[in-house]
């Protein structure tokens, strides 16, 4: 017994001094030119696959991934956030990206072996020590589904195009690839004042209002263009939402917005005639529903009164209120 313990102690000592030598003396070669030692790539990849499959969200949380607005939004984000590494389906990765270890795979190869919920986990969390970044806002898994919808659309022959613009030199055109052509989760800006829009852009920039999509967008345009962009988009007419046919929801929403309940304050006490909250009339329904959920769940809390107002909303209330304000 003593012999066994002694042998184990000697082995542990050897292992430890080996590790100290590798770390302390710089014996491990970190060069990206030589790749991994035999077997290490296999271990890393197998760990990656199993880790993703264990943690991926349930598909029951997914929205309709065939929604054209969701796909267009995902395409817009992909163009500036993912294409620099993975390229678009029609372009090539740069020589420098191909020299990364591991190299970012071409996007069609990247999605080949994954289900939509696996892709969601990878895009939200990134992959440690590989260069694959996490989503640049926390608590915004709802936004990640837009990118997944775009990736899923790439599997079919209908290849949605990622818009190409140069945000640094033509910021207005860049913003207008989403605001205007895309409805649903992308808000209308023409119902707001320039001051409100500019405050929101600053909040996205600082992270006070978390959104990976808008954080990416504001990080690309020149800082001193924000107030001009706010003015421009407040003045550029956009289409109103189509009338909502869910009349039951609309009338429930109306009652709640006008009178409130014991737990929910009347929305119109703030959201009418420019009192305390921004205008909501004619805003896109999917955007309203998503924002109300985020306020309720505390992901958005940069305004205390609005967070408190949404605190006790049920899913049915949110459905009704978004239908009401969208059609108002
Ligand atoms: C800075 C470069 C970089 C950016 C930006 C980037 N990726 Fe990646 N991505 C990588 C690398 C490197 C890997 C390979 C990770 C590995 O094999 O361990 C990867 C892996 C992936 C995978 C898994 C691929 C596989 O073969 O299993 C998917 C899916 C993916 N990325 C999608 C995206 C999407 C969508 C975006 C944009 C939101 C994005 N990536 C942004 C570098 C990047
Ligand atoms: C890839 C699509 C996309 C691009 C490009 C984009 N936006 Fe957005 N924008 C969105 C989405 C989606 C939201 C909702 C984000 C959220 O959940 O807070 C949003 C929200 C906003 C808001 C907040 C509106 C409100 O009522 O709260 C403003 C202001 C805005 N965007 C302005 C801009 C400007 C200016 C640019 C160009 C620098 C831009 N956007 C580029 C998709 C985009
Ligand atoms: C006490 C005043 C107050 C009440 C009551 C209130 N809100 Fe708000 N709401 C605000 C303020 C202020 C903001 C803007 C926060 C910011 O600066 O981003 C806001 C923001 C919002 C937004 C985000 C709009 C956008 O373009 O990003 C939505 C949606 C919203 N409120 C819906 C509602 C609904 C629905 C109700 C009723 C259940 C309600 N609010 C009740 C004050 C209020």
Q: What attributes characterize this protein structure?
A:
328 residues; mainly alpha; Cytochrome Bc1 Complex, Chain D, domain 2; 0% strand; binds heme C; heme; heme binding
Layout of helices and strands:
Blueprint: H1 2-24, H2 40-55, H3 68-81, H4 83-86, H5 95-98, H6 107-111, H7 116-125, H8 141-154, H9 171-175, H10 194-206, H11 212-220, H12 226-235, H13 247-259, H14 285-296, H15 304-310, H16 315-327
Helix pairs in contact: 3-8, 7-8, 10-11, 10-12, 13-16, 14-15, 14-16
Describe the structure.
With 328 residues, this protein is mostly helical. Among the domains are: 64-154, Cytochrome Bc1 Complex, Chain D, domain 2 (Orthogonal Bundle); 185-235, no CATH class; 247-327, Cytochrome c-like domain (Cytochrome Bc1 Complex, Chain D, domain 2, Orthogonal Bundle). Helices cover 52% and strands 0% of the residues. The longest helix is centred in the N-terminal third of the chain and has 23 residues, at 2-24. It starts with a helix and ends with a helix. The model has no long low-confidence stretch (mean pLDDT 93). It binds heme C (3 copies). One heme C (HEC) binds next to helix 14 and helix 15.
H and E string: HHHHHHHHHHHHHHHH
- Portion in helices: 40-55%
Strand content: under 5%
Radius of gyration: 25 Å
Rounded mean pLDDT is: 93
CATH class of the domain at 64-154: Mainly Alpha
Number of helices: 16
Q: Count the strands?
A: 0
CATH level-two architecture of the domain at 64-154:
Orthogonal Bundle
The end-to-end span amounts to: 82 Å
Rough shape? elongated
Annotated CATH topology of the domain at 64-154: Cytochrome Bc1 Complex, Chain D, domain 2
Structural class: mainly alpha
- Uncertain spans, ≥5 residues at pLDDT below 50? none
Ligand names: heme C
Fourth CATH level, the homologous superfamily of the domain at 64-154: Cytochrome c-like domain
Sheet having the most strands: none
């Amino acid at each position: 017994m003593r012999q066994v313990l002694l042998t184990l102690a000697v082995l542990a000592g050897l292992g430890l001094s080996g590790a100290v030598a590798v770390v302390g003396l710089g014996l491990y070669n970190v060069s990206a030119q030589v790749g991994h030692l035999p077997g290490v790539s296999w271990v890393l990849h197998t760990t990656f696959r199993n880790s993703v499959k264990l943690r991926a969200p349930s598909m029951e949380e997914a929205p309709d991934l065939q929604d054209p607005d969701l796909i267009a939004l995902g395409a817009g984000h992909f163009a500036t956030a993912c294409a620099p590494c993975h390229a678009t389906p029609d372009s090539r990765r740069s020589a420098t990206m191909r020299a990364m270890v591991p190299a970012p795979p071409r996007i069609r190869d990247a999605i080949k072996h994954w289900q939509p919920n696996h892709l969601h986990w990878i895009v939200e969390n990134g992959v440690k020590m590989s260069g694959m970044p996490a989503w640049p806002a926390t608590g915004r898994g709802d936004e990640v589904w837009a990118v997944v919808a775009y990736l899923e659309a790439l599997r079919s022959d209908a290849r949605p195009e990622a818009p190409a613009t140069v945000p640094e030199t033509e910021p207005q055109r860049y913003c207008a690839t989403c605001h205007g052509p895309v409805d649903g989760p992308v808000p209308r800006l023409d119902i707001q004042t320039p001051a409100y829009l500019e405050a929101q852009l600053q909040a996205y920039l600082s992270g006070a209002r978390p959104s990976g999509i808008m954080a990416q967008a504001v990080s690309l345009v020149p800082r001193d263009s924000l107030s001009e962009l706010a003015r421009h988009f407040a003045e550029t007419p956009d289409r109103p939402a189509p009338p909502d046919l869910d009349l039951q929801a609309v009338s429930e929403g109306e009652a709640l917005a006008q009178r409130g309940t014991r737990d929910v304050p009347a929305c119109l006490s703030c959201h009418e005639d420019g009192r305390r909250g921004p205008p909501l009339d004619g805003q896109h329904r999917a955007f309203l529903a998503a924002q109300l959920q985020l306020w309720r769940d505390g992901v958005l809390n940069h305004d205390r009164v609005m967070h408190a107002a949404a605190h006790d909303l049920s899913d049915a209330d949110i459905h009704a209120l978004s239908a009401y304000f969208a059609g108002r």
